[in-house]
Amino acid sequence: MLDGPDGAPINASRRTPTIPAAIARALQARDQGCRFPHCTHQRFVDNHHIHHRAHGGETTLTNLLQLCRFHHRLVHEGGYHIETQPDGTLIFYRPDRQPLTPLTTTVTPGDDHIRTANHHDGIHPTTETSVPSWDGEHPDYGYIVDILLNTIAC
Q1: Pick from 88, 38, 108: nearest CA to 67
Q2: pTM
Q3: Is residue 92 within 8 Å of residue 71, measured between CB atoms?
Q4: Residues 4-17, mean pLDDT to the nearest whole number
Q5: DSSP single-letter state for residue 96
Q6: What DSSP element (H or E) covers 90?
Q7: Is residue 46 within 8 Å of 66, Cβ to Cβ?
Q8: Which residues contact 6 (CB under 8 A, 6 or more apart)?
Q9: Residues near 94 by Cβ (< 8 Å), separated by ≥ 6?
Q10: What share of the chain in percent tops pLDDT 90?
Q11: 132 vs 129: CA distance, rounded Å
């Protein structure tokens, strides 16, 4: 194990089956949630080795990132790929090897970006916006399926 200047572990052997607690805390403090482009999930995230341990990847902060469970599955099973650039930035690739576009602006807590976007799109939410119009009746599933099938057939 390699210790940093303050004595905290910053690197662990590849033989370590799990990420040491100190590295996991540093990773959580750095990433604060899923790093997949445009994802805002901050809970139920997994720690992911960018260069997999089975292929020689080390358990270091520079080789780790947090991904929500959905995006973690996309990377492992869906053909998505992550590459680290020399400057430390990450590029995410789709299964067809096209890079995903990163966010061009950063969103910080307290920003009024949702209200601004809604105003730009002509959406004016009120206190009644989130009130459903459902009256409590059971849905007619046969009707719903019939509509869906007719829509698909068109």
Answers
A1: 38
A2: 0.57
A3: no
A4: 61
A5: T
A6: strand 90-93
A7: yes
A8: none
A9: 79, 80, 100
A10: 32
A11: 8
